[in-house]
Automatic annotation (TrEMBL), chain A:
Matching Gene3D superfamilies: 3.40.50.2300
Name of the protein this chain belongs to: Response regulator
Swiss-Prot/TrEMBL keywords: Phosphoprotein
Species for this entry: Hansschlegelia zhihuaiae
A biological process from GO: phosphorelay signal transduction system
CDD domains tied to this protein: REC_Rcp-like (cd17557)
Entry-linked PANTHER family: RESPONSE REGULATOR RCP1 (PTHR44520:SF2), RESPONSE REGULATOR RCP1-RELATED (PTHR44520)
Residue stretches making up the Response regulatory domain: 11-134
Modified residues (4-aspartylphosphate): 67
UniProtKB/TrEMBL annotation, chain B:
Lineage, broadest ranks: Bacteria, Pseudomonadati, Pseudomonadota, Alphaproteobacteria, Hyphomicrobiales
Signal sequence, start to end: none
Domain Histidine kinase as annotated: residue spans: 254-490
Protein's name in the database: histidine kinase
GO BP: any one term: osmosensory signaling via phosphorelay pathway
Catalysis performed (reactions): ATP + protein L-histidine = ADP + protein N-phospho-L-histidine
PANTHER family in alphabetical order: BACTERIOPHYTOCHROME, TWO-COMPONENT HISTIDINE KINASE
Species, as recorded: Hansschlegelia zhihuaiae
Transmembrane segments annotated in the record for this chain: 187-204
Length: 145, 499
């Protein structure tokens, strides 16, 4: 992922409360040959704290994988927060969630989400989707934060 | 509404009062009539007394006329002067008869009449005697009779008795006149009383009417208030129900999503497990004979049979669970969908469904019949289509394969409702399952057809959302009939339960 064009490699920030999902996503992203650092957060508060820390903003480009169903706040709130942030707003956000409600999808794109992916329950489909996402990530250009 | 009993009581009192008033008025009328009658009687009596007096005077004057005639004749010896006598004599008998005949009626004592008659007789005898003597030329004898005072005394007696009788009549007259006066005063009093009662009645009537009008107006106002209250209560209740329903919808939605998340893990790690097993199996398969013998049969069986079997069960179960969760999601999503009433021709809907199901219908050797006169309905098109789709699909799906299938759709308009029936000659539903089949994930009869037990649950939820009801009559082995009833015109969605 953008290793060639950028000095600093992109950090993938995964905000996902389900440890199992997080592990499965990571496994499949790795299987697609993506070797970037993946930072996993299980709740919105700590994720936002990390994203907004000066250390992070100074540390190069980010890509955010966001789940909508979180224990402390909804992914929608986090998305809104990120897209209102001066520097974070340029970071691509991929919403990866179980919800396939049309209204929800629309709201996410309205708020500035870049890709919305529904987690398929069927694992083969899930694995394929994540692997394709991984391939997608490997060719994607991410702006410097 | 609590004012009703006292209101009824006062109404009864009003009516009683009016009735009493009318009774009093009627009594006054009867009394007045009686008094009038009596007054007439008194007047009659007065008239008769006066007439009697006139008759008496007439009789007396006749006698005087006769006497006058006699005197004149005696003085002049001229027959012409006798004329008054002759006229009077001709009338006296009749006049006397009249007086005598009514004597009893006029309260005249019999001895007075006798005295009258006697005096009259004496007088008339004296007159006729003197006249006869005069005519015979015996003037002196006649004059001596006159001078004898026989005639004068008789005349005096006559006057005396007539005077007595007249006095008696005057007495009676005075009594009658006093009575008549009293009677008239009484009549006047009765009339005044009658007028007063009539006036009071009129006043009471209008008072009663006004009171009733007032209480009617009050009742109407009260009713209007009650109606407003009722409407408010209904809309409040509806709002509560809508809120509760929305809560349930949200709940179902959230729960199904939360159920889905762990399912992703179960499926995912099952696959990972399978992948790991395959790795192990490949490893074992690649072992040469020597090494292979060291692998126990149990280990080989575990990898080649037990693990795949277990993984297979986990997969099929999670797949099933996923379908169930999707069903709940679909139900809750359908409940959140906006309802847009429009005119829908059920006949066309059923025909369209029959067209799309051509294959299944052919395979089941079945026919779908639409009875003529199927009424149209104003409702949500998508919902009603789904309802008929599910019911007709079910009917075709559960036909009895041993006989040609027949599905009949009929309907009619009943007042503000439309009713539809979907009747089949399929395998039917046992009585104990009539309610159960409408429950989520429940199915009835032999489980020989694929399905999750969602269709009828979905149908019932949709029917309720359209303000309708669904009912089932069926006999196992004979067929089933689903009875649908909807408002002919569905109100707009804001009034729907789950808008």
């Amino acid at each position: 992922m953008s290793q060639n064009s950028n000095q600093r490699s992109v950090v993938i920030v995964m905000i996902e409360d389900d440890e199992g999902h997080a592990r499965l996503i990571e496994k499949n992203v790795r299987r697609a040959g993506v070797n970037n650092e993946i930072r996993h957060f299980a709740d919105g508060t700590s994720a936002l704290a990390f994203l907004k820390s000066t250390e992070t903003t100074a540390n190069g480009p980010l890509l955010i994988l966001l789940d909508l169903n979180l224990p402390d706040m909804t992914g929608i709130d986090i998305l809104g927060d990120i897209k209102k942030h001066d520097r974070l707003k340029r970071a691509p956000v991929i919403v990866l969630t179980t919800t396939d409600d049309k209204v929800e999808i629309q709201r996410c794109y309205d708020l500035g989400c870049n890709v919305y992916i529904t987690k398929p329950v069927d694992y083969d489909t899930f694995a394929t989707a994540i692997r394709q996402l991984g391939l997608f990530l490997s060719v994607m250009q991410v702006p410097d934060a | 509404m609590s004012a009703l009993p006292t209101g009824a009581k006062s109404k009864r009192n009003d009516v009683l009062l009016l009735l009493l008033g009318f009774a009093a008025l009627a009594a006054v009328g009867v009394a007045a009539a009686w008094q009038l009658q009596r007054s007439a009687e008194l007047n009659e009596q007065i008239t008769r007394a006066l007439l009697y007096k006139t008759d008496l005077i007439h009789l007396l004057s006749l006698v005087q006329d006769a006497e006058t005639g006699q005197r004149g004749f005696l003085l002049s010896d001229d027959e012409r002067y006798l004329r008054p006598y002759e006229v009077a004599i001709g009338e006296i008998d009749e006049a006397l008869a009249g007086v005598v005949a009514r004597a009893d009626d006029r309260g005249v004592k019999r001895d007075r009449i006798e005295t009258l008659k006697a005096a009259l007789k004496v007088k008339l005898n004296e007159l006729s005697e003197t006249i006869a003597l005069e005519r015979a030329g015996k003037r002196e004898e006649a004059r001596s009779i006159v001078i004898s005072d026989r005639g004068r005394e008789a005349m005096n007696a006559l006057r005396g008795v007539v005077g007595l009788i007249m006095a008696r009549q005057d007495e009676i007259l005075a009594g009658r006149v006093a009575s008549a006066k009293l009677n008239d005063q009484r009549l006047l009093a009765i009339m005044v009383l009658g007028l007063l009662i009539a006036g009071a009645l009129a006043w009471a009537s209008q008072a009663v009417l006004r009171k009733q009008a007032r209480s009617l107006a009050e009742a109407r106002t009260e009713l209007a208030h009650a109606n407003e209250g009722l409407e408010a209560a209904v809309s409040e209740r509806t709002a509560e129900l809508t809120a509760a329903n929305q809560e349930i919808q949200r709940f179902a939605y959230i729960v199904s999503h939360d159920l889905r998340a762990p399912l992703v893990n179960v499926m995912g790690f099952t696959s990972e497990l399978d992948a790991a097993r395959r790795t192990l199996k490949d490893q074992i398969d690649r072992l040469d004979d020597e090494e292979s013998r060291r692998v126990t049969t149990e280990a080989r069986q575990a990898i080649e049979e037990d693990l795949p079997e277990a993984i297979g069960f986990i997969r099929s179960s999670t797949a099933k669970m996923d379908r169930l969760i999707n069903a709940i999601l679909r139900l809750s999503r359908e409940g959140r969908r906006d309802i847009r009433p429009e005119s829908v021709s059920i006949e066309k809907v059923v025909e369209a469904i029959a067209d799309t199901m051509y294959q299944q219908i052919e395979a089941a050797d079945a026919a779908i019949e639409v009875k003529p006169g199927l009424p149209a309905i104003v409702t949500d098109r998508l919902s009603i289509e789904q309802i008929f789709q599910n019911l007709i699909e079910n009917a075709v799906k559960y036909l009895d394969r041993s006989r040609p299938g027949r599905v009949v759709v009929s309907g009619r308009r009943v007042g503000a409702l439309v009713e539809y029936e979907i009747e089949d000659n399929g395998r039917g539903i046992a009585p104990q399952d009539h309610e159960r089949v409408f429950e989520l994930f429940r199915r009835a009869g032999a489980q020989d057809q694929p399905g999750e037990g969602l269709g009828l649950a979905f149908v019932r939820a949709s029917v309720r959302r359209l303000g309708g009801t669904i009912r089932l009559t069926s006999e196992a082995g004979q067929g089933s009939t689903f009875h649908l009833s909807f408002p002919a015109v569905l109100k707009s969605q804001s009034e729907g339960l789950a808008a």
